[in-house]
């Protein structure tokens, strides 16, 4: 079982920060264990797996709600993109990061990344960001250049 989905939007505000102290009831690992289950005894007993130590996308969505509650919309957007990226394998995230460097990719390559994010990983916010980058890079002449 996982934390509340973003649609349920719990009423969070500054008094709830940090969630790990003040709203531990909302936090779960990606495998569904409550935060309170992450103990040294559980580690020694082999009850904790590597995926339990990663952040859950629901936790990042909750952090976005907190950021919005203190009028930090850019931070909230970053948390939402991060939540989407939890579904993307680390190697692909690194490859996307490298592809987004100026002059590293063509417009078509960036649009393929955006499509992949949207269709394969259901990451529309990240896909939109990459599409926007493709447009901006084109306007600013920052796309990869063909070698003559």
Give a short overview.
51% of the residues lie in helices and 0% in strands.
Describe the structure.
The chain is mainly α. It is built from 7 helices and no strands. The model is unreliable at 1-6 (pLDDT under 50).
Helix content: 40-55%
Number of helical regions:
7
* SSE arrangement, N to C: HHHHHHH
Coarse morphology: globular
Structural class: mainly alpha
Mean pLDDT: 93
Largest sheet: none
Q: How many distinct beta strands?
A: 0
Comma- or semicolon-separated keywords:
mainly alpha, 0% strand, 148 residues, 51% helix, globular
SSE layout:
Blueprint: H1 19-22, H2 40-44, H3 57-69, H4 73-85, H5 90-99, H6 107-120, H7 124-139
Helix pairs in contact: 3-4, 6-7
